[in-house]
Amino acid sequence: MSHRSNKGSSLWSDAWLRLKKNRMATASLFILIIITLLCFVLPFFSIIKDPNIQNLENTFQQPNLHHLLGTDQVGRDLLARLLLGGQISILVGIVATALSVIIGVSYGSIAGYIGGKTDSIMMRIVDILYGLPFLVIIILFSILISEHLDIVAQTLIEDWELNKTMVLKFTNLIPLFIAISALGWLTMARMARAQVMTVKKQEYIEAAMSLGLSHWKILTRHIMPNILGSIIVYTTLTVPGFILTEASLSYLGLGVESPNSSWGILLKEGANYMETQPQLLIIPSIIFSITLFALNFLGDGLRDALDPKAAKD
């Protein structure tokens, strides 16, 4: 008589099964995939016009066959501007989050693992950085780095013969990436420190230390995998925050530079005509809000799916 062996399931497979049961989280994931594909794939098709072409004879057009979402105050296609703005806003959110996660997790993990005076000094530095004025730092940093970026961009265009529009599009974003992530890692560092301090008290960590494993192996092989779930959840919740920060900075004129567009730029331009041309504000606001809500719902779903207490249910 043969016995069928029951295969055990991993934490990640269990988490995926719990995530799929959360309808809001799965719907949010689907919506985010659709929005990302539309922003990064649809512009390559000929039906999407150049977002920077102006036509002063075609301003404030209502949605029609030639301009599916109409045109703005200088005759630019609103759909093309919306997709271009989505590219930049999503890139800012992802890149800034990635930088903040790398810096914050590394810093916080080291502080929490070492402990003692080293931990106290490192976290006091974090407290000091929390007190710095965010907008002032961004303005000063943009001024200091802008000249160097212009030189780099000119070199890439002339010596490497790269596309001028593409080079300027991304080099103008570098100060924004660095400025947002420069202080965005502070909360991540505190979270990683707290998680590491909790995990390192577990018995299996003490067993690894008694076996003579190096601190690096203990940190990377035994501690970091066990705090990865919390990091993923917090990362998902950080992306909408950074997208909102970019939108706020662009709304104030401190973010994305012309002729590039972002959802923050579109909201700023739409606010100027909200009484006479409300569609210029309503359409970007709807897409922006849907993206932020989807990211937050997905983050909540991941938090529930990766919760160790849920695994016992």
Q: What does the secondary structure layout of this molecule look like, with pairings?
A:
Blueprint: H1 11-21, H2 23-41, H3 78-114, H4 116-130, H5 134-158, H6 164-171, H7 174-199, H8 203-210, H9 215-251, H10 263-272, H11 279-305
Helix pairs in contact: 1-11, 2-3, 2-11, 3-4, 3-7, 3-9, 3-10, 4-7, 5-6, 5-7, 7-9, 8-9, 9-10, 9-11, 10-11
Describe the structure.
The chain is an all-alpha fold and 313 residues long. The protein has a domain at 95-262. The chain is 71% helix and 0% strand. The chain has helices spanning 11-21, 23-41, 78-114, 116-130, 134-158, 164-171, 174-199, 203-210, 215-251, 263-272, 279-305. The chain is globular. It starts with 10 loop residues before the first helix and ends in an 8-residue tail after the last helix.
Helix/strand structural class = mainly alpha
Helix percent band: over 70%
The major pleated sheet works out as: none
Number of helices: 11
Low-confidence stretches: 1-5
Count all strands and give the number: 0
The value of Rg in angstroms is 23 Å
Shape: globular
The average pLDDT is 82
Distance between the termini: 33 Å
Binned strand content: under 5%
The gist of it:
By secondary structure, this protein is mostly helical. The chain has helices spanning 11-21, 23-41, 78-114, 116-130, 134-158, 164-171, 174-199, 203-210, 215-251, 263-272, 279-305.
Please give a handful of descriptors for the protein shown:
313 residues, mainly alpha, single chain, disordered N terminus, 11 helices
